[in-house]
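Tokens help. Our protein:
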Amino acid sequence: MSPRAVKTLRTLALLAALFAFCVVMFGAFVRLSNAGLSCPDWPTCYGKATWPGHAQDIARANEAFPDRPYETHKAWREQVHRFLAGSLGVMVLAIALIAAWRRRFATVAVIAAAVFAAVGVVMYMRGEHLFSSFLSALAIALPLVAAATLDRPGAWKIGVVALAVIIFQAMLGMWTVTLLLKPIVVMGHLLGGLATFGLLAWAALRWWRVGSVDDRFAALRTPVAVGIAVLVCQIALGGWTSSNYAALACGTDFPKCLGQWWPQTDFPQAFVLWRGIGVNYEGGVLDMAARSAIQIAHRIGALVTFCYLGWLSHRLARAGLRKVGVAVAVVLVAQVLLGVGNVHLGLPLPVATAHNGVAALLLFTLLAALASTQRLPAPESP
């Protein structure tokens, strides 16, 4: 691959990673401001490409969706989030195309995936849901096959995989609306957004030559990988807490919960992943005992995560990766303080949104740590 193409990939991947971070933050803002169902249809909003603005449009919207009265201050948030996600999708498509360029099968697969995804959206809007699902499945599978057959270093493969992830993320966004904020889908949508950010961040780190010239840090790879897995599990717990409206299940008490160290809980009900179709989960459907169980599980997970990543940051610093180790420690402490602040302050929107953003930053520091332990590949050949 030409130096010009590599330079383009570096710049585009960095911009896409930054943009993905912004999309994750804005998505958290939409979810935490209870605007997730402010547009009851997808990908339009009350049948419009933007959102109703004039009195006549609003009247028609309310007539078409009597169970979901139009709320101006919320609808724009949801639709702007969709626009941002769509823009990110275009950036990821460009990265995938450049990464696959001059490899005929991979290039054709990426282009076909984009076409199938676009046609799938059109079919969905026309009510052809089965055909739309089939096309979407093809659109997800093709980049994965292309990446598996691509004879280039890992960052190039990741650039192609990111296309499959963001197409699946779009489907999760659709299901978030059509399945009425089902918690497993909302949690998956959060994880999908962070996965997109993580893949783009990893590709950017590698294209910017973050790594080691030898294997001196090889012994740190497994501990860092375990740290990423621990963090992902904790983020999933956080997503489950948010999607079940359990963030304030313990009131504003910390470290106690409702004035007790262990209040009444219902863990079996708290972690039922699938409760059927047709239930509106806006506001949550669990009783207080189940929500308290989710909140306590999230706090226990936070303690485990804090202890492990705190130890990992110390080990990274001692092993010679001082800057990365300090970065992990600083972001980790900030995340804990934001989590405690969420409880004590009653879940203010800015703090809750920042809590999501700092989780993404913590993921990035761990990815930077992992990249620093990896041997740099040889310069790319055409």
In short: Residues 288-319 form the longest helix (32 residues). The mean pLDDT is 94. DSSP finds twelve helices and no strands in the chain. Residues 248 and 343 are 7 Å apart (CA to CA).
